[in-house]
C-alpha cells in the first residue's frame, strides 16, 4: 500500500510534515490548496480514517500511524480555533 507524506502550513506559519498510509489522501486534500481550519481537519479526518480502514482490510488491523497523525492534527488545530486567520495550506503531497 503506497504511503504519502504531506506538508502542512498552519495559520501561525509553522510547518508540519504529516503521514498517510494510503493515497486516498488525494481524494480529500489537494497540494497547493488552502483550507479553512475546520474544513482541513474534517478532510484530514476523512482521509486518515479511510486510509486506516484500507490498512485494516488488507492486513487485518487498523493503522496506528494514521490514527496518531489525526490526533496530532486535531490537537494542533485546537490552538487556532479563535485565531482570525484560520487558513491551512497543503504545501506538498509526496
Your description of this structure?
This is MSMEG_0570 family nitrogen starvation response protein. It comes from Spongiibacter nanhainus. With 94 residues, the chain is of the alpha+beta class. The chain has one domain (4-93). It has 2 helices and 4 strands; from the N terminus they run βββααβ. It has a 4-stranded antiparallel sheet with strand order 2-1-4-3. Helix 1 runs antiparallel to helix 2. The chain is globular and about 45 Å long. The model has no long low-confidence stretch (mean pLDDT 97).
Structural class category? alpha+beta
- The number of distinct helices, counting runs of at least 4 residues, comes to 2
Can you write the helix and strand succession as a string? EEEHHE
Low-confidence sequence ranges: none
Number of strands: 4
Shape: globular
Adjacency order of strands in the biggest sheet = 2-1-4-3
Evaluate the radius of gyration.
Answer: 13 Å
Report how far the terminal alpha carbons are from each other.
14 Å
Q: Estimate the mean pLDDT confidence.
A: 97
Helix content: 40-55%
Q: How many distinct domains?
A: 1
Beta fraction of the residues?
Answer: 15-25%
Features:
single chain, 94 residues, alpha+beta, four-stranded antiparallel β-sheet, 2 helices, 4 strands, globular
